[in-house]
């Protein structure tokens, strides 16, 4: 049995029981949460999110990339979100590689060097600040006054705002 088979079995057992408002695609809290794909971050539980309340955008690192801006532009302009919460975390995989070492690894394995940035970082708070700044300076976004950055400690569960 693959893991996907396991998930499908769980889905069948759970049935259609998730509470919340399904009437609109526009998040009722008008907020978009950007975070890392790290499996220890349970975004919905962490913020007590119900169905229909928030957009949740995830990638490796929870870093604001062009593709995050693409999703945020749609989120703000077509689905009415006005606030952005960016949450990166301690012990992130992007803290354990460097830009060059990961690109070298891919190039050695494939013969191709990626054109995209790995977005590796040493200082998680500096990385959060950079992502906040990328949102604040994007010409494609409508709402840039409420953009807040946080670091989530995956071991203690503590959430700290980055100023
Ligand atoms: Zn991470």
UniProtKB/TrEMBL annotation:
Q: Per its UniProt entry, what is the enzyme's top EC class, as one word?
A: lyase
Q: Which family does it belong to?
A: Belongs to the beta-class carbonic anhydrase family.
Q: Which GO terms describe its molecular function?
A: carbonate dehydratase activity; zinc ion binding
Keyword presence, Zinc? yes
Q: Which CDD domains match?
A: beta_CA_cladeD (cd03379)
Residues that, per the record, bind Zn(2+): 36, 38, 89, 92
Xref: SMART domains? Pro_CA (SM00947)
For this entry, the protein name equals carbonic anhydrase
Per UniProt, the cofactor note for this protein states: Binds 1 zinc ion per subunit.
